[in-house]
Amino acid sequence: MNINKPFILSLLCILAISTCLITACGTSNTESAKTSLDSDAICKEIIEAGAFADTLNIIDSSYSDMTIGINTDSFTNAVIYTGSGATAEELSIIQVAEAKNTDYIISKLQTHIANQANAYGGYKPEEVDKINNAIIKKTDCYVILCVASDNAKALDIIDKYFK
Amino acid sequence: MKFKDYLQIGFVIIFILFVPICLMIYSRSEKVALLENKTSESFIAPSFLAQIGQTEEETSETEPETTESETTTPEVTEDYTLPDDNSRIYITDYRFKNVDTSYFDDAVFIGNSRLQGFVLYSKIPDLTAYTYVGMSVNSYFTKASFTINGVQMTAAKALENTEFSKVYLKFGINEIGWTSVSQFTDAYAKVVEHVFSCNPNATVFVQSVLPVSKEAIAADSSLSKEKIEAFNHGLQEMAGKYGACFLDVYSVFVNEEGYMPHEYSFDGVHLNVASVQHWLEYLLSHGVER
Predict the structure, then answer these.
(1) Which residue of chain B has the CA closest to A145?
(2) Contacts of A116 in chain B (CB under 8 A)
(3) What is the pTM of this model?
(4) Is the Cβ–Cβ distance between A96 and A74 less than 8 Å?
(5) With an 8 Å Cβ cutoff, are A84 and B266 in contact?
(6) CA dihedral A3, A6, A7, A10 (to 10 degrees)
(7) Does the interface predicted TM-score (ipTM) exceed 0.95?
(8) Cα B170–B174–B179 angle (5° rounding)?
(9) Residue B133 with chain A: CB contacts under 8 Å
(10) Cross-strand partners of A77
(11) Do the beta carbons of residue A99 and residue A76 sit within 8 Å?
(12) In whole angstroms, how far apart are CA B169 and each of A87, A88, B132, B205, B249?
């Protein structure tokens, strides 16, 4: 069998380079994903830890603009839980393509939190303290927002993943 | 291997990688442009920066200055004047039919947190909705809480920028403390008139105020089952007068004593996920024949 060695070597080189590019975080070749989180599992872990007084329910991420004030084209994945409306409690983990995009997500979440404080201030003032103590943390390509009734329980979980 | 073999390898690699690399660079520059566009509208409150371990200076490069409207929900203070409308056909006798969820494709849902719960929990994707916690028939015209094409606007203005054939309205629980029923229904009528001014041929559904639980009334003195009943009576009259379709969703969730059963809700006011499905079933059995 006549094997063209240079051709085979070329293919191997291309494969190696492609693998490096594909496994990078998004399209950046200067930043790479150091962390891969299971957002669904983390959210469930926080909820099961008893951090919330309300019953949180998962929401279709197509409603991200309504629920957290972030357009769907700003993230690659979002797991969003909201309360029934009885409380301001909520939990979201947003994943973006590149770590530097988390700053934009955080800024939108700050705006959302400010709006929530404004809305609940004239509606259920007892919820405003929870909102003002909202937990927002980031790690690599992920941002978490948590408005809980028991921040200590929430942070026990969150700190494991968002250092 | 000979020199020409190495040369051959080099050419093949460069040729095959050239196109994807160009595409990556192009895609990256587009994303950066998009991000810069978006960050120009964003804002980070200094009080939150400490929480995320950043200083204002650190974020200033990526988060330029923005207008105040992006960070707050300003009240719109100018008077709203309803346009003259003589083109509308008043319908007072609606006939219902069963429909599927595609019936909502050209519908807009407007209202308070109870309706927001319906939108989020009914599991129907891509409903058009202008809802927020604390929304009232007055703030429909005054509170700029919705962003369309980068512009923050009231629900009224948002609706003017939306194509629709049906509107589902839901107000009342945030107005329950108002002094009289007519004060509520008069203000509600302005919303209905505004919707018809946007589309005279639209079907406007006025959904009744849902009941609350006995426990919720005990915990909040502003709540009253008699007031809710009076509001609903007033809404039915108002809807008939203005040619809107009154939907008695209240009847789905009320028990013999006039309260919402405890199991329907976490707090006796806002419906849980399971109960929202009853609401959805009611709406699906109350499509309107035109």
Answers:
(1) B52
(2) 133
(3) 0.73
(4) yes
(5) yes
(6) 140
(7) no
(8) 115
(9) 85, 88, 116, 119-120, 123
(10) A95
(11) no
(12) 22, 23, 13, 6, 12
**Among all chains, which residue has been given the structure tokens 């379709």?**
B245
Running DSSP on this structure, what letter comes out for residue B75?
A: B
pLDDT in tens, B58-117: 333 333 333 333 334 445 544 445 545 555 666 667 899 999 999 999 999 999 999 999
CA-nearest residue to B32 within chain A is: A101
Give tens-digit pLDDT for B145-174: 898 888 999 999 999 999 999 999 999 999
Residue of B nearest to A108 (CA): B42
The two structure tokens encoding residue A133: 């103590």
Residues of chain A with Cβ-Cβ distance to B63 below 8 Å are 103-104, 107
User: Are the C-beta atoms of B107 and B120 separated by less than 8 Å?
Assistant: no
Side by side, the strands of the sheet bearing B107-111 are: B128-131, B107-111, B166-170, B203-207, B245-247
Nearest to A55 among B1, B116, B272 (CB): B272
Q: How far is A137 from chain B (nearest CA, A)?
A: 6
Number of other residues whose CB lies within 10 A of the CB of residue A101? 24
